[in-house]
Amino acid sequence: MRLAAFFVAAIALLLIVVSFVLYFSFAANIRSNLEGDFASDQAQNAFVARTVNHLRDEILLVDGAILVLVSGAGFLLARRTLRPIQRNLEAQKRFISNASHDLRTPLAVMKANLEIAQRYGAAANDCDIAVSSSLEEVDRMGRMVEDMLTLSRIDARQEELRFSVVDLSQLLARIVEKMRPLAAGDAVGLDVVAAPDLNARCDADHLQRALVNVVRNAIQHSPSGSTVEIGAARVRDRVEVAIHDRGPGIDGDDLPHIFEPYYRREEARSPGRGNSGLGLAITWWIVEQHDGTIDVSTAPGLGTAVIVSLPLAGPS
User: Fold this and answer.
1) β-strands 227-235, 238-244: how paired?
2) 51: closest CA among 84, 74, 28?
3) Is the pLDDT of residue 270 over 50?
4) Is the CB of residue 75 less than 8 Å from the CB of residue 1?
């Protein structure tokens, strides 16, 4: 806003200077051109005064209109320009607050576990439990830090992708095996049905990371005893990967924002979930780099379905 005010002030100063120059120049020209055209100097001076005053009023009116238009346009453009910056600043403040809380929680858990291990070092079972719990928290913090670094590289346009032809059915099988321990820990089943020979030109590591983020979210929001269904099929010249959970669904107010960096739903803020608020933003970027799309459909109490659509690889 200060920049807009400075811009308006500069325009106002320029208008004042130009208006004074025009005013005195026209007044001098009128006086010189009317010499001898009137019967008396009094009549000439009266005409010149009326003309000059009329000119002055018109100049002031034009200046005022220009200032109003410039001021309005300047402040509107400034607000429009600053709006995304303000949103990013607010999002980063929100993320710093969330990340501080999320990092503090695993650190507190690790500290407690190490204190237990130190105090009861003779009990091997207690040490194993403490070490296992600490390793889980280290993995959680590692994912959070990796998400931060990835998003930083994305913002700096330094994240590189290496494309090759990949069988997505095999990629999904690897993802399911990778996520089974997490699902088993939450008593959630994983069911995958993928058609064969679903070849796509993609960066296998990045695409796996994108789909893992979606599957992890589905598991974490699924009730115990439910199943996350994962499917892949050819739809015309594309392949669609669908991930469907039976969780509580996504609130309508949250749905437009779930792929924004640093954004997290309220229920995702509880400790122990390991959500940095960056995973789905990274997923969106990866899919976009593959000329793909993500569609999300949800209903309260019926779960959420995420469909990732990617172009099939052309004939080699």
Assistant:
1) antiparallel
2) 28
3) no
4) yes
* Cβ atoms of residues 6 and 57 within 8 Å: no
**Residue 84: how many CA atoms within 13 Å on its side-chain side?**
4
- Looking at the whole model, is its pTM more than 0.90? no
Burial class (CB in 10 A: 0-12, 13-18, 19+), 12: middle
How far apart CA 28 and CA 255 sit, in angstroms, is: 68
Q: Tokens 């590189």 identify what position?
A: 160
Residue for token pair 């090759």: 164
CB 192 within 8 A of CB 152: no
Q: Are 245 and 303 in contact (CB under 8 A)?
A: yes
Q: Which of 230, 221, 206, 219 is nearest to 290 (CA)?
A: 206
Q: HSE, CB side, 13 Å, CA atoms: give it for residue 129.
A: 10
Q: Where are the beta strands (DSSP E) in the chain?
A: 164-167, 189-194, 199-202, 227-235, 238-244, 293-299, 303-311
- Give me the architecture of the 165-311 domain, per CATH: 2-Layer Sandwich (3.30)
> 3 to each of 13, 48, 69, 312, how far by Cα in Å?
15, 42, 16, 49
| CATH architecture for segment(s) 94-155 | Orthogonal Bundle (1.10)
pLDDT classification of 271: cutoffs 50, 70, 90? very low
